[in-house]
Amino acid sequence: MSWISAVILNIPLFLTIFFDQKADFCMEYWPKPKWLPKAYSSTWFFVAGIIPVMLMTVLYSRVVYSLWFKREGNLENTQQGVMKVRKRVTKMVLTVSVIYGLCWMPNLTIYALNYFSPSQNYGDVTYITSIVLVTCNSTVNPFIYVFVNQKFRVKMKRLLCCGKSWSNRVGVSNDSTRHTNDGTNTITQPTMEE
Prior knowledge:
By secondary structure, the protein is mainly α. The protein is built from 5 helices and 4 strands, in the order H-E-E-H-H-H-H-E-E. Helix 4 packs across helix 5. It starts with a helix and ends in a 7-residue tail after the last strand. GO terms for molecular function: G protein-coupled receptor activity. The chain crosses the membrane at residues 43-68, 89-113, 125-148. Pfam families: 7tm_1. This is G-protein coupled receptors family 1 profile domain-containing protein.
């Protein structure tokens, strides 16, 4: 459903964008009436910015409250372990959400202001900086996972060590059972030749 919504939300952009050779930049050309680009940029601002940030703020504040501030009686060791894991996962998801807001809101704000304020221009330093922030949002998530999640960190170390993975090596087996083609198994003593 979210992919369908994203495609529908981007259709007007696909129909209005063109490359301006004078500006050496992709621009949007909106037909009249003048309220169309304002409505479209405002929709993006609310659908991709304000609504998700508000939802994340409300929902994660409830989760944080119940995990850190709501006191329950004495917990058993297994329950304490589960709470510790939940807190760690919550920290990770909260960090990803905060970085989403910090990276996307400047771009969405500039995009909306571009149609409400004539002082905003595509291609200026603030716009390019906001595009860089949006791009950084996509690249920073793996680093957050490495920083917060120990299992992810171990897997990334193994992946980046280029074949120096210790857990995937085939070990020497002392199995003395030989499987034969006739369906019988024979037991032999390992020799030096094996």
